[in-house]
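Hello,

Our lab assistant flagged a job as stuck in the queue for most of the afternoon. It eventually completed. Since we weren't sure the result was trustworthy after the delay, we are filing this so someone can double-check. Below is the sequence as submitted and the structure that was eventually returned. Let us know if re-running is recommended.
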Amino acid sequence: MMNLTATSYPFYSYVPSRISASIFAIIVFISLISWFIQSLHVKCRPRSIFAFVLISHLTTFIELVLRAALDVNRLNTTTLYKVTAPLISVPPRLLLFANYHCLVELRGKKPHRIFDRVIDIVVPIGGITVDILLAIANELSFKSNHLYRSFYLRQASAGFLLCLTILFYVVWYSSVSHARRQYVLPLLSVSSICVFIEAIYILAMSIPSLFFQLTQSELWFYAGHLIPIVLALISWSIFHPSRLLPPPETAVPHNEAGEELLPPPQTI
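-- returned structure --
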């Protein structure tokens, strides 16, 4: 068994690139401005999606600014770790929630359907469970006699997160008609795949042997976390749901066969 007390856990071993962090911070800031301006034109609707994507932009931007502004000796301290760890974990969680709520808006909400109960109850509870387990794991990572327990909790958190990302595809294809899926296919395809890649990365980081390999180089952080999250944020800014979502089911006429007579999907 690996002696974790002789390692740098939970800190990474590489020196962060300030130039790379600055470049990505600028990209995220531009995406944030684009998202905010487009949302203002539609009075920040849908409100839940607006809030999820906005906070994801802000937390990603703040984390990148800290990464670009502070040297590694300051970043690798207990206080800064407790600040930056949530900034890293919050964006993918909120983007996952945005994906789910986009399905609700795509179809038009009817509270008595099982689909809506999954979105309103199962997904939030699952997300809160993931964050609670991760928060406890972060606290235990600074206690030398609980380091392995910290990894076990990380694995449980990562497992729950991966299940939620996979459940999204089940809900998408089982509860939304093919015709309606076409409206947001580019947006949700990019966003969900990026969130799924990040979930795989988090699961890998919860395994001790892989954690120390992945924290040797900043390349893995960018490939597994930052680039997928930035691509997802950009996709929300480019394919703003207010321009793509069709009318709710209750507002669409049906033909004699009961099929919806939907207008053609809009282009960007």
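-- support follow-up --
The delay was a queue issue, not a problem with the job. The result is valid. The CA atoms of residues 205 and 211 lie 5 Å apart. The mean pLDDT is 87.
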